[in-house]
Every structure is written in C-alpha cells, then in structure tokens.
Amino acid sequence: MPKPKRYVWRIKQKKQTASSSSAPPPPPPWVELPREITADILSRLGTVEILLNAQRVCSTWCNICHDPSMWRVIDMRNDEDTYMEDVFDKLCRIAVDRSQGQLLKINIEYFGNHDLLQYITQRSSQLRHLRLVSCDDILNGSLAAVAKNFPLLEELHIYLTAICTVDIEAVGRSCSQLKSFTFNDCGFRGLTRFRSLQIDVNDQALAIAVNMPELRHLALFGNTMTNEGLCAILDGCPRLESLDLRHCYSIDLKGDLETRCHQHIIDLKCPRDCTHGYEFSAQICDYNSGDDQSVWFSDYFNDYEYDYDDFDYDDFTNPFNGEYLDEDGFFW
C-alpha cells in the first residue's frame, strides 16, 4: 500500500509567506535624506503649501516643518481671493508663531489688517524685510503704531496699500537702519485739482526727506509730488543710489534738476520711462478732463460698475472659513 503524500513543505511555505506579509513596509526614500536638504526642499514649496499639505506627509516632514529655522522667511500670497482672507490670516499667525522670534522677512499680499500687523511685529523683533501688497484693511496710522517693534528693519516695500505721512515719519524715526523704501501707487495726471482742494502733494516726499536720511534705494511709482518734493528728497537722502519716479507726472524733470538727478543717482527711472516688467498694473488715473470738481468726484466713482450677482455668497457654506482651521493649520 503506497504511503500518503506529505504536505509539510507547503505548510511551512504558507507560514513563511504569512510572516513576510506582516513585515512593515520600508520607509519612503526621502526620509533618508539629510535633514538640511529636506528643509531646503520644503522651503521652496511656500508657506501655504507647507502648512496645508507638506507637513502631513510623514512624521519626519512634520518635525522639520515645526523647526523655527524653517520660518525665517514667510511668503503669503492670497491671489485676491476675498473669501480666503480669514484663512490666510490664521495661517500667517501660525507661521509667525513657529518662527519663535527668528522671522527675518515677510511678504503679505491681498489680505491682512492692523491686528495681524501688530501680531507679527510683537513677535518678530529681528524683522529685516517687510512687504505689503494691496492690504486694503491696513489703514492710515497702522504702521506708525507698530514701527517701534522692528528697529532692525532694513527694507520696507508698500504696494497699493494706504499709508500716510505719520506712518512714514514713525518708520523713519524707529527704523534707523532702513536702506530701501518702496511706496508705489497708481499714476495720477491732472493734479492741479488736488492743490485747489488744499491737499499737500509733497507731504510724503518731505516726510521721507526728513526722516529717512540713510536710504540707498527709493521707489515712489505714481507719487503725487512735484519738483519741490523731489528736491527735498535729494537734499535729505544724499546716499541714494536708485530712484524710481515712473508715473510721477507732477515732476518736470528738466534743466538743473534733471542734471542733478543723473549726476547723483546711479539707477534713475524718470516719470515717463517704460513700465515694462513692472509686476503690477501700471494704471494711470487722468483727471485732466472737466473743470467742475463735483463732476470729477462723481465721474471717479461712476467709473465702477458693480455686478451684485458676484456677492451672492453664503458664509455658512464656505468650507474655507477660519472656523475649519485648528491651531496647527489643519482643516477639520
């Protein structure tokens, strides 16, 4: 009688297969990268991408994304989405907190208000570079209220954001190391009406001349100043190396003033120079037409056509409002 077949080998093989399948998968290859290389790669993603996505990939990345050295530079660009302003505000505060006082450079575009600006400056005494772009809720006097909190500031760049003479004076007095100042607006033509309304078109230029003597680089795209304001800047800022006067149409750059500018300024952009490459809209507001001031103001506001269908929006259905962010910047 033949002996029965034995299946020992197959049983052992099944056990081996089962044990091998329960072994943990190997770690992803990026985990083995040196920490400094990983940090360099992550820093290229941008602040928002890190907070909303990158830090969730693995524990190694999460740990690196909480390192204060990762937050010495914060770049927050909202792309003009008003529905996301509260989210960007919360993300910006999280990024500032993670810097633990090491923040050196910050850029804020299309969101932000006085409270956020104050929050940043109270926690960033080492700040060297501040850039604000179209921050409509940062009002006149906001910079003056916080200027004393960043005494080491070297560069201040303001685009399409309201600041006043008081702000410029306070920044100049508090930030003695300021070397580069940008205050760019829309270009204006026909500003004789401002003078008839007793508006001082040179007040900002005079504030710069008196309070920012150490400037090397100055950009005043679209400023309302006249030759008087320009002369004051040349007198008060003798170390200027670059000066952007494009769209400053109240300046008549001729004769001795033109010669003086070209002799003392290495990089000079004149009022009617080309704006090719300028990163924002080079819009010109022309008030030359019409003599009646009341018509001027009326025409100014009537130029805007409002489509009220654009405002059909329910805040309670917005999945991106601030109520959905936890303290680490995660949606829940």
From TrEMBL:
Region (Disordered): 11-30
Domain F-box: residue ranges: 27-74
InterPro entries on file: F-box_dom (IPR001810), Leu-rich_rpt_Cys-con_subtyp (IPR006553), LRR_dom_sf (IPR032675), LRR_FXL15/At3g58940/PEG3-like (IPR055411)
Database matches in Pfam families: F-box-like, LRR_At5g56370
The protein's name: F-box/LRR-repeat protein 23
Origin species: Capsicum baccatum
Lineage: Eukaryota, Viridiplantae, Streptophyta, Embryophyta, Tracheophyta
